[in-house]
Design goal:
The protein has 288 residues and is of the alpha+beta class. The chain contains eight helices and 15 strands. The protein has helices at residues 27-40, 52-60, 99-104, 143-148, 152-158, 167-174, 181-186, 220-234, and strands at 4-7, 14-17, 42-45, 82-85, 123-130, 138-142, 162-165, 190-193, 195-197, 204-206, 212-215, 240-243, 250-254, 258-262, 273-279. The radius of gyration is 18 Å and the shape is globular. The model has no long low-confidence stretch (mean pLDDT 95). Bound molecules: N-oxalylglycine and manganese (II) ion.
Length: 288
C-alpha cells in the first residue's frame, strides 16, 4: 500500500499517512518521504508509537545523527535523544518556575536547531510521547517562502552577509544565570551565511533565529535590527504552520529553511514529553 501525502499549510508542511515507522522502510517509500521532505520542509507522521531505538533507526536513514550539547544539563548530556519534558524521573510534574523549565523555555523563541554549531543541523525529528490537551503547539515558519517573497533589492542586499550565531547570547535572554563557562567553551560563537541555497532544490532560504546575534562586520545594533526585521518578516501568518499535537505524532522539519518555536501550555496541570533526534548537517555554511 502506498503512502498518502496531504498538504497542511498554505505554502509548506504536509501530513504523511499510511506508514508504520517502527518497521524498516522500503527504499522507494523512503525516497518518497525524502522527496516530500525537500518539497514541504515539515512532515507530520500520525500515530507513530515509537520507542527511542525505533526513532533513532528511522532518523538514521537520513544521515548521521548529532549528539546533544554535553555541558547543557537539560538536553540529554551528549546522547542522541534530547528529551524535552516537564516530568521528572519519578513521574512528577516539574514546576514551570524551576531552572529546568526556564532553560527549556528558550525553545519558545523562534530558532533553527543547532544553528549555534559550526555545522548546523539538517533536520530534527520530534516525537510527541505525551502532549497536553490544549496549548503546547509547535509553530513553524518557512524562511524559504519568506525569502522568496522579499523584494529583489532586499535579496541583493542580503546576499553574502554572514551572521554570528551564539548559544550563550540566545539562552542568555531567558536564563542568564544558567550560562556556565563550560557551556561558553563548548559552544563558542560561529559564523553562518544569512542566505542559504538548498542543494536539493536550488531554492534559497533565510538562516536566522534566536541564536543569530549580529552581522559580521556591522555595528552590533545595526545587525540586530536587520535580524529582528527579517525574523518579523519571516514569521508573518502567511509563512507559518501551527502544529497542534496529537499523541504519537512525529514531526520532522528542515532546519535549513524553517524556524520553529514551542508555544506555552499549562505546565502545572498538563504533562508534555517530547523526544527529539537531530540529523547532522553536511558541512559548515561558511568556509573556515
Ligand atoms: C525542539 C523544539 C519545541 C517544542 O524540539 O527542538 O524546539 O514545541 N521544540 O517542543
Ligand atoms: Mn528546537
Amino acid at each position: 500500500m502506498g503512502i498518502i501525502i496531504n498538504k497542511l499549510g498554505s505554502c509548506f508542511a504536509a501530513e504523511v499517512l499510511g506508514i508504520d515507522l517502527r518497521k524498516p522502510l522500503e527504499e522507494d517509500t523512503f525516497k518518497q518521504i525524502q522527496d516530500a521532505f525537500y518539497e514541504y520542509s515539515v512532515l507530520v507522521f500520525r500515530d507513530q508509537d515509537l520507542n527511542d531505538e525505533q526513532q533513532i533507526a528511522f532518523s538514521r536513514r537520513f544521515g548521521p545523527l548529532e549528539s546533544s550539547v554535553k555541558s547543557n544539563p537539560y538536553s540529554g548530556g551528549g546522547g542522541q535523544v534530547i528529551v524535552l519534558s516537564n516530568v521528572n524521573e519519578k513521574g512528577e510534574i516539574i514546576p514551570p518556575n524551576s531552572d529546568q523549565m526556564i532553560y527549556l523555555s528558550g525553545n519558545m523563541l523562534w530558532h533553527s536547531d543547532s544553528s549555534f554549531k559550526r555545522i548546523p543541523a539538517k533536520a530534527s525529528i520530534l516525537s510527541g510521547r505525551e502532549v497536553p490537551p490544549e496549548g503546547g503547539e509547535t509553530e513553524y515558519a518557512s524562511t524559504r517562502a519568506a525569502y522568496e517573497a522579499l523584494p529583489d533589492e532586499k535579496k541583493a542586499m542580503l546576499e553574502d552577509l554572514i551572521a554570528t550565531h551564539d548559544y550563550s547570547y540566545s539562552r542568555g535572554q531567558v536564563a542568564p544565570h544558567l550560562i556556565t563557562q563550560a557551556l561558553r567553551d563548548e559552544l563558542p560563537p560561529v559564523p553562518q551565511i544569512l542566505v542559504r541555497t538548498l542543494p536539493e532544490t536550488g531554492k534559497k532560504a533565510l538562516f536566522i533565529g534566536s541564536h543569530a546575534s549580529h552581522i559580521v562586520g556591522w555595528p552590533i545594533e545595526k545587525g540586530r535590527a536587520l535580524l529582528k526585521e527579517l525574523l518579523e518578516w519571516s514569521t508573518q501568518p502567511q509563512f507559518v504552520y501551527t502544529h497542534t499535537w496529537r499523541p504519537k505524532d512525529l514531526v520532522m522539519w528542515d532546519n535549513r529553511c524553517c524556524l520553529h518555536r514551542g508555544r506555552p501550555w499549562d505546565g502545572r496541570k498538563y504533562r508534555r514529553i517530547m523526544h527529539r533526534t537531530t540529523i547532522a548537517g553536511d558541512g559548515p555554511t561558511v568556509r573556515p
